[in-house]
Amino acid sequence: MIGFGSKKSLTAELHEDDSYVLTTGGFKTVANIKTEHFKTQGTPNNKSKWQLTLTYGPFLALAPTTFLSLLLLISDRKHWVASPSIYVLIAANRATIQLVVQVLASILGFLNFLIVCKLINYHTRLRLSKASMSLEALRFWNSLLSQQLNTKVPIHLLVPLVVFLGLGVVPSALWAAAITPVVVTVTKSGQLQLPSYASTDVLVDGWRNRSGLPSTRSTKGLFTYNVGERFQGSLLEAASTATTVDGNPGLRSKLDFTGYSYIGRSYGVGTSVGLVDDDIQLNSLANQYTYLEAGYLPTVKCIYNETTQFVLGKDTSDGKMFFSAGGYLPNSYGADGKPILAEWSRYPGYTTDSIVALGVATIIQTTRRIIGIASGAKYPNLNTTQCETIFSPTLFNITVQLGGRNITVTPVANATVDDIEPHGNLTYLANWQLMLISTDQTSLYTSLVGNSFNSSIENYITAQDTLGKTAPSAADATLRGLENSVTAMMDGILTGYAGAQLMVANETTATNVYVDVQALRFGQGVWINTVVVVNTVMILLVLLEAVRTRGWSGLSDFDYTEPTDLVFGVARACESEALIQWEDDGGGMDRLRIAQRGKTLVLQVGKGL
């Protein structure tokens, strides 16, 4: 029984079917909540400022969500990213940032869902003022708008209630995806200094000398114009490992102390990496950078020249443990076909067995870069071989992986580029260095040059077997392995001269460099677009509903989701004297009290909570 304090014997009996029946004077009648006792808000023109605020104020919740969604949309379209300092701050406090994101997303999701609930509330209140509603429906709408899973709701209404409550978490989830900082890669441009051969004064000065050539040493490495002799170890290692046993490109260490390695060939470019790119190297957020550099594409072709005139012989100068290698090469002749100068060099040894002599033309003006090889009995496969290197001006794309300290060089197809050193001094000196290395690396017992060449040849044979190819002939294996070795040495020698031009002569030219940098962007495009669409739909719904209902004209103050409104409505329907006394005394929510007596609610006038 629900009773209201009154001089009359008036009670409201709660039946098992959840209907309320008023009992007064022995007569029973169904109680109607008299909403006409509540003020009707009327048309917008007749509303007070406070009523307008109560009606339209909740829709101001669209302001922050609209502003933020548009801001996110603009940032996505214009690819805005956070500053590096913010990136570092967020990266160092991921847990805290995630907490902030969740709280902010919950607030924004709540504001979105508030609009939906308010539209439903206004719609059902207008409907209730025009037509009756079952208590089951009232319980359903009340549970829905209060977002409570009320199991007393009939099953046919429980399902949509559960669905609605489930949808209630969607706005927050969408906002979380739209504002969560994500790591992206942005490309920034800059300038990088490259070695230049516009001036070759230092390059050609005293080139025949084996010592005293310009050099400099720093924490970044040794840089010298005496490339062949000062980098013999690295160049011989390159020759030895030029052919990989699995056919995959190997790693080639730079000739400096930067710790960078080339994946595959260097082609003689990429020298600037780690040397003059400090601004990039010191950027902890940089991942990689790329740039274009002109250079040469050394292509080596080796053959057996059975008629070669470059051979080993007895040294006539002293006759003791030294043997000469001399004779004409195909490029030792002038334009008229007459020999100009025979090539000559000397090698130590008890006999010629351990000698592998490399002969190159000493005529700078010759256009062909040829190497003639004469070897002793320990290296019979190398004897009478001859290699020619063609240096083709080529544009290269260089990609530098900063994390792995790797450099990848790729020739740019169909690119037109000028010769970086059209006088031929650079290619001549690169070829010349091979002769210096062979004379330095021959002892009384062995030739390190010959050993390096043979290592590459043996790797070639192994690689063919690993790849399941037909075993090559001894001659073919020798020529292919030799081509790989000479190619690797040429690449290394060119990088050595490039380093000298860059760090010793300070001959440089600038090029554009493009750096990929880690950055933070708030949200992902798909989720940003989603929240923009959702927010736009809500704005349209509010406008359409406002137009349809003429600004919710006729909406009374009575709100069935408010317990006090329900109590007042029932009490007025029962004509409660306590309520009449309370109204006569001027009202005041602090003076009206409600108490439970079993199944009876008693309405009293008093003080206190």
Question: Could you please describe the fold and organization of this structure?
Answer:
The protein has 609 residues and is of the alpha+beta class. Among the domains are: 1-38 and 558-609, no CATH class; 187-518, no CATH class. Helix content is 38%, strand content 23%. It is built from 17 helices and 20 strands. The strands form five sheets. Strands 5, 8, 9, 10, 14, 15, 16, 17 and 18 form a nine-stranded mixed β-sheet that branches. Helix 4 packs parallel to helix 15, helix 7 (170-179) packs across helix 15 (525-548) and helix 10 runs parallel beside helix 13 (448-466). The chain crosses the membrane at residues 54-75, 95-120, 157-178, 526-544.
Q: Average pLDDT, to the nearest integer?
A: 84
Largest sheet: 9 strands, mixed
Characterize the overall form.
rod-shaped
Q: Oligomeric state of the chains?
A: single chain
Low-confidence stretches: 1-37
Query: Radius of gyration over alpha carbons?
Result: 45 Å
> What is the number of helical segments per DSSP (H or I, 4+ residues)?
17
Q: Note the gap between the termini.
A: 24 Å
Number-wise, the strands total: 20
Beta percentage is 15-25%
Structural class designation: alpha+beta
Q: What is the share of helical residues?
A: 25-40%
What's the structural blueprint in terms of helices and strands?
Elements: E1 2-3, E2 10-14, E3 20-24, E4 27-30, H1 49-56, H2 62-77, H3 84-92, H4 94-130, H5 135-146, H6 155-167, H7 170-179, E5 181-195, H8 201-204, E6 215-218, E7 221-224, H9 227-230, H10 232-240, E8 251-253, E9 261-263, H11 278-281, E10 286-304, E11 311-314, E12 322-327, E13 343-348, E14 356-360, E15 369-375, E16 385-401, E17 406-411, H12 425-440, H13 448-466, H14 474-503, E18 508-522, H15 525-548, H16 563-573, H17 577-584, E19 592-597, E20 600-605
